[in-house]
Amino acid sequence: MKNKPCKNVVVMGAGPAGLSAAYQLSKNDIKVKVFEAQNQVGGISKTIVKNGFRFDLGGHRWFTKIDELDKLVKKLLGRQLIEVYRTSRIFFDGRYFDYPIKISNVLKGLGFWKSTKVVLSYLLVRIKYRLNPKPLKTFEDWTIANFGYVLYSYFFKTYTEKLWGIPCRQIGAQWAAQRIKGLSLSSAIRNALIPAKSKPKTLIDKFLYPKFGIGRICERLAEEIKKHNNQIALMTTVKQVNHKNGKIISVIVEEKTGGAIKTREIAADQFISSIPLTQLIRILTSAAPQAIIDASKKLTYRALITVHIIIDRPQITSDTWVYIHDSAAGLGRLHEPKNWSKYMVANQNQSSLVCELWCQENDEVWRKNDSQLIKLVMKDLTEVMNFITIEDVVDAFVVRTSKAYPVYKIGYQKPLKIIQEYLSRFENLQLVGRYGTYKYNNMDHSILGGLWAAKNIILGKRIYDLEQINADLEYHEEKQN
Ligand SMILES: Cc1cc2nc3c(=O)[nH]c(=O)nc-3n(C[C@H](O)[C@H](O)[C@H](O)COP(=O)(O)OP(=O)(O)OC[C@H]3O[C@@H](n4cnc5c(N)ncnc54)[C@H](O)[C@@H]3O)c2cc1C
User: What is one term from the GO cellular component aspect held by the record (predicted)?
Assistant: First the structure.
């Protein structure tokens, strides 16, 4: 990027990443146009409103370790931010267990025989690794080494495979090390026998949440962008990205208004993309080399189907989330929005649930119609979990998200690197966001990426290295007690 004043910027996608870039540029009086395929801003972090009930696409809490971002969100939302205490449980074997798992609670809940099996299998695996140490390459290796096979099969295998849709031996050990660090059975037993000097790391037990739903963060960013007379074009999909001599020169967008489709070409000095990396590769014109297209086919995403249900009962659970590890249920996770904020329901006599199903785009679950999906979820809720009855249901609807999780299958880094190297040749293109960079970002990572990309444009130099965002292995939910 040269030290040349930038006159206008195109931002692709109006999720947290794209909007925070446009926000920062707007504040610095740079002209920016944001193009968003959906009919509202927020991406995966949006809040949908139906009959006065508000629904996130799976509960989203706001948390960050980066002060600048915390200050930004507090400035944007002010008194709309509320503090929520987290109490979550795991549903397994017809019973509930604490989340994050506590070994004492698990052993008590499982009963004598299953608990004995857990402890014996753990001792066995420790002896095995002591006699024959071997590197922990996969999620399965890491979890079995830390918990034993029995606890792994009860509390990690089913849930992880439901989420990712691939066997745990195809997922890298880093993922386990990052997500479940500090929860090993040995440290739990050790802590029970010898009181620890410092408490182990736990997952945060309270968080901030906008009282009208997580989508308010993006809605507030959008309001600020518009105050600076910058445009956010909804229902407008970037269909083509044109380049010449190592620079992006324009995008072709398709705008849907009523029944009509209008196509326009928009030129700009600088481009920020938060649309899925694999999609960007496919819409480059002239086309990316075949090797790059082949590499992009190796990166896959897990899809999310959320079934949103309005229920004629004042409250169904006391939980923030319920994680469904039980293999009898197809459901992965659910939450009751009212437990996050009472403003998420239209009236206090009723409540609602958001139920998450994970699948592949176009697999048999994805292809089910809405009423089949609602039936599937209702079967889990009524028969497997005994949560509600059919008579409780007032209304239900389905939302499909084709790209919800970039899949960290073993070996994904190689094709990703090939794509990153190819795209880095475009001197006026920056990649941000969860799908734009193919990183398992939380909102704060995406917002930071957007802000940094904008600052690079404002400064006229690539001072901020976007690749450093969400690059460490520390799980961003951890805190030291
Ligand atoms: C179930 C679930 C729960 C989560 N919970 C949390 C949580 O509790 N806390 C947290 O911090 N994070 C959470 N996350 C992560 C959070 O949703 C993401 O980090 C965040 O939304 C990513 O923002 P983004 O801008 O990078 O991408 P997105 O939110 O996906 O935004 C990208 C936007 O680009 C648009 N787009 C795509 N293609 C085109 C195109 N061709 N033209 C125009 N527009 C296009 C999309 O429609 C979308 O609006 C959760 C994610 C999931 C799936």
Answer: cytosol
